[in-house]
């Protein structure tokens, strides 16, 4: 029997884990990667005098797929510091207190935002289960689910007696969490996050902003790559894919092309427009590519003079919505992580811009360095992590989960569980899509 061959497009977590599955099944493969490195939107790089996560950062033992990799490769985790002083705004007035006091003020409005998370997501890794006729949900529940997809994450706070302080805190929280404008993001994504975290705000915080890898993300993606025997071709951008029932032809930026029995594309939706598909993508998938996600923001690392253990929240229109101390360096500096909703509002290499950010909470502190990567402007990503617009939870990502040809998709953007924000979903789809391809090729 002729041995089957698969081309994997992208050497991020999804592509690497898909390749490992193919290798285990005895199927020939090779990976093509447009960048000059592996990792995709996970990128551990030496900046500001230490290794920093330029992309994905946080992990948790409740994230099943990433924790399996942490166990497999013997990686250790470390907790981010509990801050001494938190700063937040209420109707334009700067307030301060402990992190616990700030969290307590978030509890009541977040309970409203997470409302119906149990009913909507009885099995969090099956996000559209309540719409499945076999599940037997009431029409009332289905209608409520669909309506929630059309609502922004902060809309729930417009009805009720929520204070401006509560609204401002939630605005800052979700501007960072959605890495975009929260009023444009589907409320269902926040509710699914709650379901993935046992419906507890404290666990949402733990899973998305508390524990990171001692050796960085490269401690995992680097080890996966070492386990692979297939070729990884860097600096190899794909421009076109022609796919049929039993084969696919991939064309590269240098004009060359090659044919395989199947192709697994792990390119995020923000960059899929760079590839011409023949035949074209299904209508629902193409609409998603044209709309893109609600992922317009950025992540930055800001280095300040002295050791300062702080946490800052600021609502729109602040450039940075959340800032927190992460590392206390031997040269008497502190490195803080920062998130904002609009990548066009900051120069990620400008100390002057970073100083303005810090000034909104602590004008007495001096910024001595800043770094980051503009993932939205990056032609090979076109976005930060995947956050869904209103309506895209029920009409968007899932179009990429089924295939009727030799073309298949994997990546955090299409995950059933953690879609973006952490790497668990990328690993999930790398495994599941590869298994689908393996089963199809085996007949």
Number of domains: 3
Second CATH tier, the architecture of the largest domain: 3-Layer(bba) Sandwich
- Tell me the span between the first and last alpha carbons: 12 Å
* Extended strand count: 20
Helix percentage: 25-40%
Which structural category do the helix and sheet elements fall into?
Answer: alpha/beta
Strand line-up across the major sheet:
7-6-16-17-18-15-19
Biggest sheet overview = 7 strands, mixed
Assembly annotation: single chain
Catalogue the unreliable spans.
none
Which value, in Å, is the CA radius of gyration? 22 Å
Q: DSSP strand (E) fraction?
A: 15-25%
The gross shape turns out to be: globular
CATH superfamily membership of the largest domain:
FAD/NAD(P)-binding domain
Question: What descriptors fit this protein?
Answer:
443 residues, alpha/beta, FAD/NAD(P)-binding domain, Polyamine Oxidase, Chain A, domain 2, 3 domains, seven-stranded mixed β-sheet, five-stranded parallel β-sheet, 12 helices, 20 strands, FAD-dependent oxidoreductase
Describe the structure.
With 443 residues, this protein is of the alpha/beta class. The protein has 3 domains: 5-42 and 216-293 and 381-442, FAD/NAD(P)-binding domain, CATH 3.50.50.60; 45-58 and 77-82 and 294-373, Polyamine Oxidase, Chain A, domain 2 (Alpha-Beta Complex), CATH 3.90.660; 99-211, Polyamine Oxidase, Chain A, domain 2 (Alpha-Beta Complex), CATH 3.90.660. 30% of the residues lie in helices and 21% in strands. The protein has helices at 13-24, 64-72, 99-113, 117-120, 139-150, 164-177, 187-196, 201-209, 218-227, 283-291, 351-359, 424-442; strands spanning 5-9, 28-32, 44-47, 50-53, 77-79, 85-90, 93-97, 211-213, 232-233, 238-243, 248-252, 257-260, 262-265, 276-278, 298-305, 310-313, 322-328, 333-340, 367-372, 407-409. The strands form 5 sheets. A 7-stranded mixed β-sheet has the order 7-6-16-17-18-15-19. Strands 9-2-1-13-20 form a 5-stranded parallel β-sheet, with helices on one face. Helix 2 (64-72) packs across helix 12. The radius of gyration is 22 Å and the shape is globular. The two termini are 12 Å apart.
């Amino acid at each position: 029997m002729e041995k089957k061959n698969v081309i994997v497009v992208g050497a991020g977590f999804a592509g690497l884990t898909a390749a490992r599955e193919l290798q285990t099944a005895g199927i020939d493969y090779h990976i093509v990667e447009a960048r000059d490195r592996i990792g995709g939107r996970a990128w551990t790089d030496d900046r500001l005098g230490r290794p920093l996560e330029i992309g994905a950062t946080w992990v948790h033992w409740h994230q099943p797929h990433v924790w399996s990799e942490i166990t497999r490769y013997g990686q250790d985790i470390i907790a981010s510091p509990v801050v001494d002083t938190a700063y937040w705004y209420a109707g334009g007035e700067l307030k301060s207190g402990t992190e616990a006091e700030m969290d307590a003020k978030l509890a009541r409005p977040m309970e409203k935002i997470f409302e119906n998370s149990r009913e909507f997501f009885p099995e969090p890794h099956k996000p559209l289960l309540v719409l499945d006729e076999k599940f037997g949900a009431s029409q009332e529940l289905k209608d409520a689910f669909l309506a929630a997809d059309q609502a922004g994450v902060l809309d729930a706070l417009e009805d009720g007696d929520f204070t401006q302080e509560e609204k401002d805190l939630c605005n800052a929280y979700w501007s960072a969490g959605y890495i975009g404008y929260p009023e444009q993001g589907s409320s269902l994504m926040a509710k699914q996050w709650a379901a993935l975290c046992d419906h507890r705000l404290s666990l949402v915080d733990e899973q998305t902003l508390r524990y990171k890898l001692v050796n960085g993300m490269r401690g995992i993606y680097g080890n996966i790559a070492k386990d692979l025997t297939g070729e990884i071709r860097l600096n190899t951008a794909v421009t076109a894919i022609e796919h049929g029932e039993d084969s696919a032809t991939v064309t590269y930026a240098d004009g060359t092309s090659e044919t395989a029995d199947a192709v697994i594309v792990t390119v995020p939706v923000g960059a899929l427009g760079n590839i011409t598909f023949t035949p074209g993508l299904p209508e629902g998938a193409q609409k998603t590519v044209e709309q893109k996600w609600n992922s317009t923001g950025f992540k930055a690392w800001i280095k300040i003079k002295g050791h300062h253990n702080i946490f800052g929240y600021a609502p729109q229109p602040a450039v940075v919505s959340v800032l927190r101390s992460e590392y206390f360096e031997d040269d008497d500096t502190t490195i803080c992580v920062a998130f904002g909703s609009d990548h066009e509002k900051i120069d990620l290499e400008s100390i002057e811009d970073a100083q303005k950010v810090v000034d909104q909470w602590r004008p007495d502190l001096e910024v001595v360095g800043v770094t980051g990567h503009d993932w939205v402007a990056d032609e090979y990503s076109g976005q930060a992590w995947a956050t869904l617009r209103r309506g895209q939870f029920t009409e968007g990502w899932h179009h990429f989960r089924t295939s009727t040809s030799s073309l298949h998709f994997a990546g955090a953007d299409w995950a059933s569980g953690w879609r973006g924000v952490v790497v668990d979903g990328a690993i999930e789809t790398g495994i599941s899509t590869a298994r689908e391809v393996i089963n199809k090729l085996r007949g």
